[in-house]
Specification:
Layout (H helix, E strand, L loop, with lengths): L15 E5 L8 E9 L2 E9 L5 E5 H7 L3 H4 L14 E5 L5 E5 L5 E5 L3 E3 L1 H9 L6 E7 L3 H7 L6 E7 L2 E13 L3 E7 L4 E5 L3 H13 L2
Antiparallel strand pairs: 1-2, 2-3, 3-4, 5-6, 5-10, 6-7, 7-8, 9-13, 10-11, 11-12, 12-13
Helix pairs in contact: 3-5
Length: 215
């Protein structure tokens, strides 16, 4: 628990120093990571800066912390239970369109018109929400100007999915631009993060609108 020779553990000149910011006003912790254990390749000596106890820590934790933030992100943060979903509200530039699922698992538009909707069209909406893959984090803790810059201050498309009146997922879609694929700025469930996806959002929504309003 206490030694005057930290060099034998590599803790006199640690390979990694990790600062942990604690919640609820608790003081910051500093963790020192030293040498590999002689008999365990994935274990390294470690100690808290202001404590005497030396312990072993799996080095895989350190390698994870070195990863880029996008690697740690849930790539499908808008995921939800599709079986529970029984109402979808799609907002574009016009009046909100409300879809309901009936007891036979069929979908219908109930507002602003009354019309059956094919499973293919509903799947298009699911594909740009439930199965949408985030490609990049654009901004953490965005400022108002960040939302304006990417078109999320006045989203072109809003998609909200419910179980009865309980919100399961809400995705806001901002500006799009083309590279090799269509890229769109998105915000999910009021998270203070701007993401980027290369899902085919505009074309999928346009296909749904065409089915609903065509004769």
């Amino acid at each position: 628990e206490k030694t005057d020779d930290l060099s034998q553990y590599g803790l006199d000149d640690p390979s990694f120093i990790i600062t942990l910011t604690m919640q609820l006003g608790m003081p910051t912790k500093i963790l020192l990571i030293g040498n590999q254990l002689p008999d365990k390749k994935n274990m390294h000596y470690a100690k808290q800066f202001d404590k005497d106890l030396i312990f072993a820590l799996e080095f895989s934790l350190i390698k994870v912390l070195e990863r880029d933030a996008i690697w740690l992100l849930d790539k499908q943060p808008a995921r939800f239970n599709r079986e529970m979903a029984n109402k979808i509200v799609l907002e574009t530039t016009g009046e909100p369109i409300e879809f309901h699922k009936d007891a036979t698992e069929n979908w219908n538009v109930v507002s602003p018109i009354d019309k059956n909707v094919s499973r293919e069209s509903i799947n298009l909406l699911y594909n740009i929400s439930c199965f949408m893959v985030v490609r990049e984090i654009v901004t953490y803790e965005p400022e108002p100007g960040n939302y304006i810059e990417v078109g999320l201050d006045k989203p072109k498309i809003k998609l909200s999915i419910y179980f009865n009146d309980s919100l399961l997922s809400k995705v806001l879609y901002g500006n799009s631009f083309m590279t090799d694929n269509e890229n769109t700025y998105i915000r999910i469930n009021d998270l203070p993060v701007i993401f980027l996806t290369d899902a085919k959002i505009n074309s999928n929504v346009n296909n749904v609108l065409k089915e609903i309003f065509s004769e």
